[in-house]
Predict the 3D structure of the following.
Amino acid sequence: MLRVDEVIRERLSSRVALIDQISHYIVNAGGKRIRPRLVLLCSEALGFDGPERFELAAVVEFIHTATLLHDDVVDESALRRGRATANAAFGNAASVLVGDFLYSRAFQMMVGVNRLRVLEVLADATNVIAEGEVLQLMNMHDADLAVRDYLQVIRYKTAKLFEASARLGAVLAGADETIEALCADYGRSLGTAFQLVDDLLDYEGSSNELGKNVGDDLREGKPTLPLLLAMERAPPADRSLIRQAIEQGELQRLPEVLDIVRRTGALEATREAARGEAEQARAAASRLPASPARDALIDLCLRSVHRSS
Ligand code: GRG
Protein backbone atom coordinates (compact mmCIF):
# COMPACT_ATOMS: atom_id res chain seq x y z
CA MET A 1 0.00 0.00 0.00
CA LEU A 2 2.99 2.33 0.57
CA ARG A 3 4.02 1.70 -3.02
CA VAL A 4 0.44 2.42 -4.16
CA ASP A 5 0.60 5.77 -2.36
CA GLU A 6 3.88 6.55 -4.13
CA VAL A 7 2.34 5.73 -7.52
CA ILE A 8 -0.67 7.90 -6.65
CA ARG A 9 1.59 10.84 -5.86
CA GLU A 10 3.78 10.34 -8.96
CA ARG A 11 0.77 10.17 -11.28
CA LEU A 12 -1.10 13.14 -9.78
CA SER A 13 1.28 15.63 -11.28
CA SER A 14 0.03 18.12 -13.86
CA ARG A 15 1.45 21.24 -15.48
CA VAL A 16 -1.72 23.01 -14.44
CA ALA A 17 -1.38 24.48 -10.94
CA LEU A 18 -5.06 24.27 -9.95
CA ILE A 19 -5.19 20.57 -10.88
CA ASP A 20 -2.14 19.90 -8.68
CA GLN A 21 -3.66 21.88 -5.82
CA ILE A 22 -7.11 20.26 -5.83
CA SER A 23 -6.02 16.71 -6.59
CA HIS A 24 -3.46 16.81 -3.76
CA TYR A 25 -6.06 18.42 -1.49
CA ILE A 26 -8.45 15.48 -1.86
CA VAL A 27 -5.85 12.71 -2.03
CA ASN A 28 -3.88 14.04 0.97
CA ALA A 29 -7.08 13.97 3.03
CA GLY A 30 -6.57 10.20 3.10
CA GLY A 31 -9.42 7.81 2.56
CA LYS A 32 -9.39 4.18 3.50
CA ARG A 33 -7.93 2.96 0.18
CA ILE A 34 -10.16 -0.13 0.23
CA ARG A 35 -10.49 -0.56 -3.52
CA PRO A 36 -6.70 -0.58 -4.18
CA ARG A 37 -6.38 -3.07 -1.33
CA LEU A 38 -8.73 -5.40 -3.23
CA VAL A 39 -6.53 -5.26 -6.36
CA LEU A 40 -3.42 -6.08 -4.32
CA LEU A 41 -4.99 -8.81 -2.18
CA CYS A 42 -6.75 -10.62 -5.04
CA SER A 43 -3.65 -10.56 -7.26
CA GLU A 44 -1.47 -11.70 -4.36
CA ALA A 45 -3.92 -14.46 -3.40
CA LEU A 46 -3.57 -15.75 -6.95
CA GLY A 47 0.22 -15.57 -7.01
CA PHE A 48 0.79 -12.40 -9.07
CA ASP A 49 3.47 -9.96 -7.90
CA GLY A 50 4.23 -7.81 -10.97
CA PRO A 51 4.42 -3.99 -10.75
CA GLU A 52 1.19 -3.61 -12.76
CA ARG A 53 -0.72 -4.33 -9.56
CA PHE A 54 0.41 -1.03 -8.04
CA GLU A 55 -0.54 0.85 -11.19
CA LEU A 56 -4.05 -0.65 -11.30
CA ALA A 57 -4.50 -0.15 -7.56
CA ALA A 58 -3.80 3.56 -8.11
CA VAL A 59 -6.14 3.55 -11.12
CA VAL A 60 -9.13 2.36 -9.09
CA GLU A 61 -8.37 4.91 -6.36
CA PHE A 62 -8.26 7.68 -9.00
CA ILE A 63 -11.59 6.55 -10.44
CA HIS A 64 -13.06 6.42 -6.91
CA THR A 65 -11.72 9.91 -6.14
CA ALA A 66 -13.12 11.28 -9.43
CA THR A 67 -16.56 9.91 -8.54
CA LEU A 68 -16.32 11.50 -5.07
CA LEU A 69 -15.46 14.90 -6.58
CA HIS A 70 -18.46 14.65 -8.91
CA ASP A 71 -20.75 13.19 -6.27
CA ASP A 72 -20.09 15.95 -3.75
CA VAL A 73 -21.07 18.53 -6.38
CA VAL A 74 -24.26 16.65 -7.26
CA ASP A 75 -25.15 16.17 -3.59
CA GLU A 76 -24.00 19.68 -2.55
CA SER A 77 -22.00 18.06 0.28
CA ALA A 78 -19.82 20.24 2.49
CA LEU A 79 -17.69 17.73 4.40
CA ARG A 80 -15.63 14.76 3.14
CA ARG A 81 -12.70 12.89 4.71
CA GLY A 82 -12.94 15.21 7.72
CA ARG A 83 -12.42 18.45 5.81
CA ALA A 84 -14.31 20.84 3.55
CA THR A 85 -15.23 19.10 0.26
CA ALA A 86 -13.36 20.30 -2.82
CA ASN A 87 -16.58 21.93 -4.07
CA ALA A 88 -16.92 23.84 -0.79
CA ALA A 89 -13.25 24.89 -0.86
CA PHE A 90 -12.71 25.53 -4.60
CA GLY A 91 -16.18 25.68 -6.18
CA ASN A 92 -18.27 23.29 -8.28
CA ALA A 93 -16.63 23.95 -11.64
CA ALA A 94 -13.11 23.25 -10.38
CA SER A 95 -14.27 20.06 -8.63
CA VAL A 96 -16.01 18.64 -11.69
CA LEU A 97 -13.06 19.46 -13.95
CA VAL A 98 -10.41 18.03 -11.63
CA GLY A 99 -12.63 14.93 -11.35
CA ASP A 100 -12.43 14.74 -15.16
CA PHE A 101 -8.64 15.06 -14.95
CA LEU A 102 -8.35 12.17 -12.45
CA TYR A 103 -10.75 10.04 -14.46
CA SER A 104 -8.87 10.55 -17.73
CA ARG A 105 -5.48 10.11 -16.01
CA ALA A 106 -6.78 6.75 -14.77
CA PHE A 107 -7.49 5.77 -18.40
CA GLN A 108 -3.99 6.86 -19.49
CA MET A 109 -2.54 4.63 -16.77
CA MET A 110 -4.66 1.59 -17.62
CA VAL A 111 -3.71 1.87 -21.30
CA GLY A 112 -0.09 1.71 -20.07
CA VAL A 113 -0.80 -1.75 -18.63
CA ASN A 114 -1.45 -2.84 -22.22
CA ARG A 115 -4.13 -5.47 -21.56
CA LEU A 116 -7.42 -5.20 -23.44
CA ARG A 117 -9.29 -7.13 -20.71
CA VAL A 118 -8.22 -4.52 -18.13
CA LEU A 119 -9.64 -1.74 -20.32
CA GLU A 120 -12.83 -3.71 -20.84
CA VAL A 121 -13.38 -4.29 -17.10
CA LEU A 122 -12.81 -0.63 -16.20
CA ALA A 123 -14.72 0.84 -19.15
CA ASP A 124 -17.72 -1.34 -18.23
CA ALA A 125 -17.44 -0.53 -14.52
CA THR A 126 -17.27 3.25 -14.95
CA ASN A 127 -20.22 3.17 -17.34
CA VAL A 128 -22.32 1.22 -14.83
CA ILE A 129 -21.30 3.59 -11.99
CA ALA A 130 -22.57 6.53 -14.02
CA GLU A 131 -25.82 4.64 -14.73
CA GLY A 132 -26.18 4.01 -10.98
CA GLU A 133 -25.88 7.70 -10.22
CA VAL A 134 -28.49 8.61 -12.82
CA LEU A 135 -30.85 5.91 -11.50
CA GLN A 136 -30.36 7.33 -8.01
CA LEU A 137 -31.19 10.80 -9.31
CA MET A 138 -34.42 9.44 -10.80
CA ASN A 139 -35.30 7.82 -7.44
CA MET A 140 -34.78 10.98 -5.40
CA HIS A 141 -37.79 11.96 -3.25
CA ASP A 142 -39.55 8.69 -4.13
CA ALA A 143 -40.93 7.37 -0.85
CA ASP A 144 -42.47 4.37 -2.66
CA LEU A 145 -39.15 3.09 -3.98
CA ALA A 146 -38.98 -0.73 -3.89
CA VAL A 147 -36.11 -2.27 -1.92
CA ARG A 148 -34.95 -4.15 -5.04
CA ASP A 149 -34.64 -0.83 -6.94
CA TYR A 150 -32.63 0.64 -4.07
CA LEU A 151 -30.37 -2.45 -4.19
CA GLN A 152 -29.86 -2.03 -7.92
CA VAL A 153 -28.62 1.53 -7.37
CA ILE A 154 -26.07 0.51 -4.75
CA ARG A 155 -24.85 -2.42 -6.83
CA TYR A 156 -24.26 -0.03 -9.71
CA LYS A 157 -22.90 3.08 -8.01
CA THR A 158 -20.70 1.41 -5.36
CA ALA A 159 -20.43 -2.37 -5.64
CA LYS A 160 -19.40 -2.23 -9.31
CA LEU A 161 -16.03 -0.60 -8.55
CA PHE A 162 -15.38 -3.08 -5.73
CA GLU A 163 -16.25 -5.88 -8.19
CA ALA A 164 -13.94 -4.47 -10.87
CA SER A 165 -11.08 -3.99 -8.36
CA ALA A 166 -11.25 -7.61 -7.16
CA ARG A 167 -11.71 -8.90 -10.73
CA LEU A 168 -8.62 -6.99 -11.90
CA GLY A 169 -6.50 -8.91 -9.38
CA ALA A 170 -7.63 -12.12 -11.09
CA VAL A 171 -7.12 -10.68 -14.59
CA LEU A 172 -3.55 -9.65 -13.74
CA ALA A 173 -2.86 -13.14 -12.38
CA GLY A 174 -4.18 -14.71 -15.60
CA ALA A 175 -6.74 -16.69 -13.57
CA ASP A 176 -9.35 -18.83 -15.31
CA GLU A 177 -12.99 -17.73 -15.72
CA THR A 178 -14.20 -19.51 -12.58
CA ILE A 179 -11.63 -17.83 -10.33
CA GLU A 180 -12.21 -14.45 -11.98
CA ALA A 181 -15.96 -14.84 -11.33
CA LEU A 182 -15.29 -15.75 -7.68
CA CYS A 183 -13.22 -12.57 -7.22
CA ALA A 184 -15.93 -10.53 -8.94
CA ASP A 185 -18.65 -12.08 -6.72
CA TYR A 186 -16.54 -11.34 -3.66
CA GLY A 187 -16.09 -7.68 -4.66
CA ARG A 188 -19.75 -7.19 -5.58
CA SER A 189 -21.03 -8.59 -2.28
CA LEU A 190 -18.41 -6.74 -0.24
CA GLY A 191 -19.23 -3.47 -2.03
CA THR A 192 -22.95 -3.97 -1.42
CA ALA A 193 -22.33 -4.61 2.29
CA PHE A 194 -20.10 -1.53 2.35
CA GLN A 195 -22.76 0.77 0.87
CA LEU A 196 -25.49 -0.65 3.13
CA VAL A 197 -23.32 0.30 6.11
CA ASP A 198 -22.58 3.69 4.51
CA ASP A 199 -26.32 4.34 4.34
CA LEU A 200 -26.77 3.13 7.91
CA LEU A 201 -23.99 5.38 9.22
CA ASP A 202 -25.75 8.39 7.72
CA TYR A 203 -28.34 7.87 10.50
CA GLU A 204 -26.29 6.18 13.19
CA GLY A 205 -22.78 7.60 12.97
CA SER A 206 -21.20 10.80 14.22
CA SER A 207 -20.01 13.46 11.77
CA ASN A 208 -16.64 13.55 13.55
CA GLU A 209 -15.94 9.87 13.12
CA LEU A 210 -17.46 9.66 9.64
CA GLY A 211 -15.63 12.70 8.30
CA LYS A 212 -18.85 13.71 6.53
CA ASN A 213 -22.12 15.21 7.69
CA VAL A 214 -24.68 12.87 9.25
CA GLY A 215 -28.19 13.38 7.82
CA ASP A 216 -26.95 14.33 4.33
CA ASP A 217 -29.11 11.60 2.74
CA LEU A 218 -32.28 12.86 4.40
CA ARG A 219 -31.50 16.46 3.43
CA GLU A 220 -31.44 15.31 -0.19
CA GLY A 221 -34.58 13.18 0.11
CA LYS A 222 -32.60 10.02 -0.72
CA PRO A 223 -34.71 6.90 -0.02
CA THR A 224 -32.10 4.56 1.50
CA LEU A 225 -32.74 1.21 3.22
CA PRO A 226 -32.98 2.55 6.81
CA LEU A 227 -35.87 4.82 5.73
CA LEU A 228 -37.56 2.23 3.52
CA LEU A 229 -37.49 -0.36 6.32
CA ALA A 230 -38.63 2.16 8.94
CA MET A 231 -41.63 3.01 6.72
CA GLU A 232 -42.52 -0.68 6.40
CA ARG A 233 -42.45 -1.11 10.18
CA ALA A 234 -43.74 2.20 11.58
CA PRO A 235 -47.34 3.04 12.61
CA PRO A 236 -49.25 5.23 10.09
CA ALA A 237 -48.46 8.64 11.69
CA ASP A 238 -44.71 7.92 11.81
CA ARG A 239 -44.84 6.49 8.31
CA SER A 240 -46.30 9.69 6.90
CA LEU A 241 -43.67 11.76 8.74
CA ILE A 242 -40.91 9.79 6.99
CA ARG A 243 -42.76 9.96 3.67
CA GLN A 244 -42.95 13.74 4.00
CA ALA A 245 -39.26 13.96 4.96
CA ILE A 246 -38.27 11.96 1.84
CA GLU A 247 -40.59 13.89 -0.46
CA GLN A 248 -39.52 17.29 0.81
CA GLY A 249 -35.94 16.57 1.95
CA GLU A 250 -36.59 18.03 5.38
CA LEU A 251 -33.66 18.19 7.76
CA GLN A 252 -35.68 19.94 10.51
CA ARG A 253 -37.44 16.64 11.23
CA LEU A 254 -34.11 14.73 11.46
CA PRO A 255 -34.38 14.10 15.24
CA GLU A 256 -37.91 12.64 14.83
CA VAL A 257 -36.89 10.59 11.80
CA LEU A 258 -33.85 9.28 13.69
CA ASP A 259 -36.07 8.32 16.59
CA ILE A 260 -38.47 6.38 14.34
CA VAL A 261 -35.63 4.71 12.43
CA ARG A 262 -34.13 3.56 15.75
CA ARG A 263 -37.42 2.52 17.41
CA THR A 264 -38.50 0.37 14.46
CA GLY A 265 -35.20 -1.57 14.42
CA ALA A 266 -34.56 -0.39 10.83
CA LEU A 267 -30.89 0.27 11.57
CA GLU A 268 -30.31 -3.21 12.96
CA ALA A 269 -32.22 -4.68 9.97
CA THR A 270 -29.99 -2.71 7.58
CA ARG A 271 -26.91 -4.02 9.36
CA GLU A 272 -28.37 -7.53 9.09
CA ALA A 273 -28.72 -7.07 5.32
CA ALA A 274 -25.07 -5.94 5.22
CA ARG A 275 -24.09 -8.98 7.27
CA GLY A 276 -25.83 -11.24 4.71
CA GLU A 277 -23.89 -9.64 1.84
CA ALA A 278 -20.62 -9.84 3.78
CA GLU A 279 -21.30 -13.53 4.40
CA GLN A 280 -21.71 -14.07 0.64
CA ALA A 281 -18.41 -12.26 0.07
CA ARG A 282 -16.74 -14.45 2.71
CA ALA A 283 -18.11 -17.60 1.07
CA ALA A 284 -16.72 -16.53 -2.33
CA ALA A 285 -13.27 -15.67 -0.90
CA SER A 286 -13.07 -18.92 1.03
CA ARG A 287 -13.16 -20.79 -2.30
CA LEU A 288 -9.87 -19.12 -3.35
CA PRO A 289 -6.61 -21.00 -2.62
CA ALA A 290 -5.58 -20.66 1.05
CA SER A 291 -3.03 -17.86 1.69
CA PRO A 292 -2.52 -14.90 4.05
CA ALA A 293 -3.92 -12.61 1.30
CA ARG A 294 -7.08 -14.74 1.11
CA ASP A 295 -7.41 -14.48 4.91
CA ALA A 296 -7.08 -10.68 4.66
CA LEU A 297 -9.89 -10.65 2.07
CA ILE A 298 -12.06 -12.62 4.49
CA ASP A 299 -11.13 -10.28 7.34
CA LEU A 300 -12.33 -7.29 5.26
CA CYS A 301 -15.84 -8.82 5.21
CA LEU A 302 -16.18 -8.55 8.98
CA ARG A 303 -14.68 -5.07 9.06
CA SER A 304 -17.02 -3.79 6.37
CA VAL A 305 -20.01 -4.58 8.60
CA HIS A 306 -18.60 -3.25 11.87
CA ARG A 307 -16.89 -0.10 10.61
CA SER A 308 -17.76 3.32 11.99
CA SER A 309 -16.11 5.46 9.30
C1 GRG B 1 -16.59 9.79 -12.98
C2 GRG B 1 -17.14 7.40 -13.67
C3 GRG B 1 -17.58 8.68 -13.07
C4 GRG B 1 -18.86 8.76 -12.66
C5 GRG B 1 -19.47 9.87 -11.99
C6 GRG B 1 -20.94 10.89 -9.35
C7 GRG B 1 -20.74 9.53 -9.90
C8 GRG B 1 -20.76 9.36 -11.38
C9 GRG B 1 -20.58 8.46 -9.13
C10 GRG B 1 -20.57 8.53 -7.62
C11 GRG B 1 -20.59 7.16 -7.02
C12 GRG B 1 -20.44 7.20 -5.52
C13 GRG B 1 -19.88 8.41 -4.85
C14 GRG B 1 -20.77 6.15 -4.79
C15 GRG B 1 -20.61 6.10 -3.31
C16 GRG B 1 -19.40 5.29 -2.99
C17 GRG B 1 -18.94 5.40 -1.56
C18 GRG B 1 -19.45 4.42 -0.56
C19 GRG B 1 -18.05 6.31 -1.24
C20 GRG B 1 -17.35 6.34 0.05
O1 GRG B 1 -16.27 5.43 -0.09
P1 GRG B 1 -15.18 5.25 1.04
O2 GRG B 1 -15.83 5.16 2.39
O3 GRG B 1 -14.41 6.65 0.94
O4 GRG B 1 -14.28 4.13 0.63
P2 GRG B 1 -12.91 6.99 1.39
O5 GRG B 1 -12.97 8.43 1.77
O6 GRG B 1 -12.53 6.07 2.53
O7 GRG B 1 -12.05 6.76 0.18
Q: What stands out?
A: The chain has 16 helices and two strands.
